[in-house]
Design a protein that fits this description.
The complex is a heterodimer of chains A (169) and B (220). Chain A is 40% helix and 22% strand. The N and C termini of chain A lie far apart (66 Å). Chain B has 220 residues and is mainly α. Helix content of chain B is 75%, strand content 0%. In chain B, α2 runs parallel beside α6, α5 crosses α10 and α6 packs antiparallel against α9. The relative contact order of chain B is 0.12. Chains A and B meet through α1 and β7 of A and α10 of B.
Chain lengths: 169, 220
C-alpha cells in the first residue's frame, strides 16, 4: 500500500512540475513573440467612443512620437495619469496619445474624459477595446501601462503610474 | 538521548521567541531601513514626490496588519512543512508524531532567522539600500552573490536565492531532528528529507516562477 502511495505521489509531483514548467516555457515564448511584434507599432483594431473604427492607419504620424496606454476609468492611478496629461499638455504637444480601455463602455469613458479634462486635449484619443485584444497584442493587462514609440520603433514600455518625464525621454 | 533533549522545549515558548524576533526585524526594517528618504530615493525616477508621500502614508496606515498576521503565517508555514515531513516519514514506515515533526521544523527555523538577522545587519550597518533592487537582489551567502543579477531575467532571482548556506543549515537541522527521534543514519534521514521537503520546496519554487512569469509585463 505504501509503495503504491509513493508511486502515485511521485507521478502527481512529476505531472505538476511538468505542467508548471510547460506553462512557464510557453508564456516566455509568447512574451518573446509579443516583444518582436510590438517592436514597431503593431496592427490593431479598436473603436472610438463614437463607435468609429480606429486602426494603425488612423494614427496621424507613425514616425512621430506615439504613446499607447492601457487604462481603466475606475483605476486611481489612471485617473492621476489623466490629470498629469492635462497638467503637462504643453510638454505633450506633438505627441499622439492613444488611451485604450477594455473596461467600461463609451458613456463611462466619455464621463472619464470629461471629468479629467482629457476632452480638451486634441492629441489624446480615447479608444474602446471591445474584443479585449490589447492583452493579446501587447501582452499586458496591468493598468496603467504605456508603450512609447518614436519613428515607429518602440522606445520603452512602462508599467504602472509614472512621471510624465519618463514618457517624454 | 542527548540529541532528543534538544526537542524537550515547549513549542509555545519558542513560538513566542520567534514571533518576537521576527517582529523586531520587521519593525527595524520598516523604521530604520525603509525610511522616507529610502522611498524618495528608490521611487524618485518613477513617480512624483507628491505620489511618493501618498504611498508612504498609505504604507504606514496598513503596517500594523503585517504584525497582526505574522504569527499566523509562521504557524501556517511550520504546519505545512511539518505535514510534508510527517508524510515523508509515514511513507518511509517511520513512526514519529506530527507534534515531533512540528518541533523539528520550529527548531530548524533558527537557520532562517539567522539569515534574516544578517540581512538586517547588512542593510543597517554595511550598505544602506537606495533602490528596490538593492533589497530584492540581496540574500546573504547565496548563489546570487556570485552572479550579476542585472543580466539575468527577474524570474530566476528567487530560485537562485534558494541556493544558500542557510537553506543547507535548515536541511541539516531537519535531518538532525529526524535522527534524534528515529534510529537512522544521516544519509537515510537526508533521503527522507530530500524526498519529502526537498520535493515540496522544488514544486514551490517552480510555482513562484510560474506566477512571476504569468503576471509580469513583456520586458524590453
Amino acid at each position: 500500500m505504501r509503495k503504491v502511495l509513493k508511486v502515485i505521489i511521485s507521478i502527481v509531483a512529476i505531472f505538476l512540475v511538468g505542467y508548471l514548467v510547460y506553462q512557464i516555457v510557453h508564456k516566455l515564448n509568447i512574451k518573446k513573440q509579443i516583444a518582436e511584434s510590438t517592436a514597431t507599432i503593431p496592427q490593431f483594431s479598436f473603436s472610438t467612443i463614437q463607435h468609429q473604427p480606429f486602426t494603425k492607419k488612423n494614427i496621424s504620424d507613425t514616425l512621430g512620437k506615439v504613446i499607447i496606454q492601457l487604462f481603466s476609468p475606475d483605476c486611481e492611478h489612471c485617473q492621476f495619469m489623466a490629470q498629469s496629461f492635462v497638467k503637462n499638455k504643453e510638454k505633450l504637444k506633438g505627441i499622439e496619445i492613444l488611451m485604450v480601455t477594455p473596461f467600461g463602455d463609451s458613456s463611462s469613458v466619455m464621463k472619464f474624459s470629461h471629468e479629467y479634462g482629457l476632452d480638451s486635449l486634441s492629441n489624446v484619443q480615447l479608444l474602446l477595446d471591445t474584443h479585449a485584444d490589447f492583452f493579446k497584442i501587447f501582452g499586458s493587462s496591468l493598468v496603467p501601462s504605456f508603450y512609447v514609440y518614436k519613428n515607429n520603433k518602440i522606445v520603452k514600455s512602462i508599467k504602472g503610474e509614472t512621471k510624465i518625464e519618463n514618457l517624454l525621454n | 538521548m542527548i540529541a532528543r533533549n534538544f526537542y524537550s522545549f515547549k513549542s509555545w515558548q519558542l513560538f513566542i521567541v520567534y514571533t518576537f524576533l521576527y517582529m523586531c526585524i520587521t519593525w527595524l526594517t520598516n523604521n530604520v531601513i525603509l525610511t522616507d528618504s529610502y522611498y524618495y530615493s528608490a521611487l524618485d525616477n518613477q513617480i512624483s514626490n507628491e505620489r511618493i508621500s501618498a504611498f508612504i502614508e498609505m504604507n504606514r496606515k496598513f503596517q500594523w496588519l503585517a504584525y497582526l498576521i505574522m504569527p499566523f503565517l509562521l504557524l501556517l508555514k511550520w504546519g505545512l512543512i511539518s505535514g510534508v515531513i510527517y508524510s515523508g516519514l509515514l511513507l518511509s514506515n517511520q513512526k514519529i508524531s506530527f507534534k515531533s515533526c512540528f518541533k523539528i521544523t520550529m527548531l530548524a527555523e533558527l537557520s532562517l532567522i539567522v539569515a534574516a538577522l544578517i540581512k538586517l545587519i547588512y542593510f543597517l550597518f554595511i550598505h544602506h539600500p537606495e533602490t528596490t533592487q538593492d533589497i530584492q537582489f540581496f540574500y546573504p551567502l547565496s548563489l546570487t552573490q556570485l552572479l550579476n543579477l542585472k543580466e539575468l531575467p527577474s524570474y530566476l532571482i528567487y530560485p537562485l536565492q534558494q541556493f544558500n548556506l542557510f537553506e543547507i543549515g535548515y536541511w541539516v537541522l531537519i535531518v538532525f531532528g529526524i535522527q534524534s527521534y528515529i534510529k537512522k543514519s544521516f544519509l537515510q534521514a537526508l533521503k527522507i528529507v530530500a524526498s519529502s521537503y526537498g520535493v515540496a520546496l522544488g514544486i514551490w519554487v517552480v510555482f513562484v516562477v510560474f506566477i512571476q512569469v504569468q503576471f509580469t509585463l513583456t520586458i524590453l
